[in-house]
Amino acid sequence: MTSEKIVENIYKEIKEKITSYNGKYKLSVILIGNNPSSEIYVNIKRKKAVELGIEFDLHKYNDDEINQEQLLQLIDDLNNDTSVNGILTQFPLNKKFDEFLVSSRISPSKDVDQVNPYNVGINLWGKGNKASCTAAGIIKLLEFYNIDLVGKNVLVIGDSMIVGKPLSSLLINKNATVTIANKYTKDLKNYTKNADVLISATGVKHLIKADDIKEGSVLVDVGVTKENGKIYGDIDYKSTIGKATYVTPPTNSVGPLTVAFLMLNIIK
Amino acid sequence: MTSEKIVENIYKEIKEKITSYNGKYKLSVILIGNNPSSEIYVNIKRKKAVELGIEFDLHKYNDDEINQEQLLQLIDDLNNDTSVNGILTQFPLNKKFDEFLVSSRISPSKDVDQVNPYNVGINLWGKGNKASCTAAGIIKLLEFYNIDLVGKNVLVIGDSMIVGKPLSSLLINKNATVTIANKYTKDLKNYTKNADVLISATGVKHLIKADDIKEGSVLVDVGVTKENGKIYGDIDYKSTIGKATYVTPPTNSVGPLTVAFLMLNIIK
Fold first, then answer.
1. Which residues is B155 bridged to in the sheet?
2. In terms of pTM, does the model score above 0.90?
3. Are the beta carbons of B207 and B191 closer than 8 angstroms?
4. How many domains does one find in chain A?
5. A109-141 pLDDT, tens per residue?
6. Which residue in the set B169, B177, B184 is minimally distant from A182, CB to CB?
7. Is residue A94 in a domain?
8. Count of Cβ atoms closer than 10 Å to residue A195 Cβ
9. How far B47 CA sits from the closest chain A CA (Å)?
10. What's B89's domain CATH number?
């Protein structure tokens, strides 16, 4: 289950909108600290934005260069800057920052990651024309492959505000029967073996193997683990691909969708 | 599993707060149409508010006496009225009204039912000092009976914005493994038989019988069905009480908690 065609269509839509827009789009990204994964993700977003002609405005700080109050002030400034269309704070932040307060401060209309509580609530209501990027990407992927969700047993592993929770909101509103598991879940296998659709976002290498899944199920991998320069997913692709109907590969599937939906949220 | 003691404590807290408050609390309730259940619920709320010395300000209309625009204007007026502490629109509304727009219009600070998307999102973030009344009541009930939720298989049947969804948000943030089922769920029994805690909010009389549940589980009944003047719950109390560890009776358990948390949300 790959996303090339979907991503291609989204960028076609974005390019048309950008061409017909009488101005310039700008994405402001706040990156604090030196988490290597965060730096990689921000670079991917920068590259794609620049490629599309979206101005990329990076605010980069070391953890000791900025405090919570200054961060909130920076967000206020970006909220008030009419040239900025989208604001994104790359998570996770250092523990000295409150991610909830930071998310709450981003103006709902510029909140491209959909972390402001107002947007979180709209998504649980099943309304609005934007959704959290990875969650929206996964729903699009399942729809593209004609995977019916109504009444299906759908398991989401991972309960973060960036993936698991907003994804559960969208799935509930697609009338799936949704289970949201986390690191406290007892006997995870009891859930994975019954799931028609399993979506894993934990960062635990090969958490899900052939023995753990239901025959004919659909597996979506959001986890990324790096080991000796190689990338592994939460799902053991090689062992599961023969038993499941669809499995996303550890790279080039959900990741590019997340970036594409981010770009879409900027111009919406 | 009954709520008398918890409810008593909540009212003690409310009375103390009201006594020490140098003013008057006011709850404005909007009731449209003639749904008999809605009228009963509003009456229960009125009675309790009056008993506590909270002014009860009822805005009652027939379905043809008010349109969407006028309803939103009424909410705006109540938002702007500094004498009003809490605003509640009794759901369900006639299909001609948009419950999402109505909920979105209620000022988050006066939204005692916690249906405004901003409050819905705060609850999914696991923040804030208020929560949806029934959901908050159920969490309190489980805590009162020392029922540990961490890692437990918790099933919520019913996905409404008034019970199922906000309850799932609270349970996820208690680190339970939460499944939210609805009328589209296939093979509901597969879920009910594995649930350590089962909460049903469907209004389907005796949907859950002894044969459907796990030995030693905890059952919470939110459903209400009236038949020939008798009230039935979603859970067959008599048949399940021997097999489950705890079962809430069809009356005098969750209902009074909902009302108590509503009153608490007014004075908070």
1. B179, B198
2. yes
3. no
4. 2
5. 999 999 999 999 999 999 999 999 999 999 999
6. B177
7. yes
8. 23
9. 31
10. 3.40.50.10860
